[in-house]
Amino acid sequence: MEGDVSLQLPAGQPAPAEAARAKHDAVRDDFAEAVLSGLARKERSIPCRFFYDAVGSELFEEITKLDEYYPTRAETQLLETHRGEIAGLVGAGRVLIEFGSGSSRKTSLLVGALGEVPVYIPIDIAAESLKEAATWLSEQHEGLTILPLIADFTKTRSLPRAAQRRRKLGFFSGSTIGNLGHAEAEAFLANAARLLGKGSAFLIGVDLKKPVSILIPAYNDRRGVTAAFNLNLLVRINRELDGDFDLSCFAHDAVYNERQGRIEMYLVSLAEQTVRVQGRAFAFAEGERIHTENSHKYTVAEFQALARVSGWRPVKAWTDPDQLFSLHLLRL
Length: 332
Known about the structure:
By secondary structure, the protein is α/β, with parallel strands linked by helices. The protein has a domain at 71-210 and 298-331: 3-Layer(aba) Sandwich (Rossmann fold), CATH 3.40.50. The protein has nine helices and twelve strands. The strands form three sheets. It has a seven-stranded mixed beta sheet, with helices on both faces.
């Protein structure tokens, strides 16, 4: 017998069919506004949250399996090695709230370690991938009640009724918090504290600072999968926003900004050209860049300081033997 899987909408939302149409329109409008305003800036940029259409999500799953891309392997190993200790520190019977659920493979390890999980609530804006991940997880854990919540996990203000008046454990894996600027990360952690409530715990995966010789290949692999992932953003603009980007005239690039402690990804114009999106023209000089992603890296002490400022109390941090990645357990 499989667990229950039913998509949840924030309180006060309309019926599912109507809500799905409204959500689709809202996502399209958000995408259009972000692209048009981002391309109009002197330093052009498009938020990384728009990477994850169906093709982008598949490409990212392929990235996680690359030899050069260490974060998924390192975090999975940490969960496998320390899941018993994590479960002991967290305690049984907590509602599990996951921010940005992804494929939920690592979630399965955590659910298995915790034992009694009365309800699992993954929060993500991508309804289809959210449903697929929840369905897969229900097949792995018999009887697990799963209530996927369609929402922006950085701004979620309320949880389904099943989570109320219960102790909660937040889970934020993959070092996705690194995609946020320091002020944004602080705001996210503070909002998560309000959402999860007093007595909650929070398990977060955070990428560590390390040599550039390891960092750059992780974001610019030999097979070009990360390049395809980045360039797919232009494919999506062409498809959804009537763009005319010529993909052969743009290239992927990844650099490490040591002062900011982050990887920066760009799409670089290979020629002087003019691109149109929804009828608006944008002129590019050769070498001009579109910034598409940041991935901040932290030391253990730096992230713990960020957590404290956001209202959390660090309990323990685990790192792998090669000091590539860290898992942090926080409490309120």
